[in-house]
Fold this protein.
Amino acid sequence: MAPTGIISKSILALDVLDRDRIAAARYTVCLDAVNGVGGAVCTKLLERLGCIVHTLNSEPTGIFSHGPEPTPENIGALCDLVREQEADVGFAVDPDVDRLSMVDETGRAPGEEYTLAMAADFIFWKGVRTAVVNLSTSQLIDESADRHGAVIHRAPVGEINVVEKMVEVDAGFGGEGNGGVIYPPLHYGRDAVLGIALILQYMTECEEKLSDLIDTFPTYRVLKEKNRLPGGR
């Protein structure tokens, strides 16, 4: 079986997902894979979930069509495509498909922090009560935890630090505010493909538009900047 088939099949086997229910919603989805490896695997998953898929930058050339991080300032073309196609949702992934950002049906890109918060909200709804995030993740995740009586543990920045803490406290969910979702029943690693499936299932079960789900959260402002070291490094 091809790698894309293996990944799709593994995600679809998760107990929290109902492929038929998502397929019945017949979502129109726009995808920006920034010419990384996500074009094939994300498209395959979306098709298996019965979605109508429109893609941007889906060829894995490795020559990125815009800044590789799925931040709002880098995915304007995806926002435009969502509006043009009157899509239900847009998804943007980074080149190695471990970070996920969303665009709602109005063409609004709320930022990657909402990916983790909304995926957590869904998983907490399903009964998980312990999660681990890094220290740079916003308070959105705490809003989600408070709704469900869940406990959030914080770990130093870095995926390995989050994973080690998840194992230590036996957390059922985790991730980073940069759009990285970790769900142990699949594996201990950030996975944007998994994030796509969780968000679609959440939309399906709530029977809500993505914009309405986003608007259940308060607005926080997070400023993240990169400082260059002397010598341009």
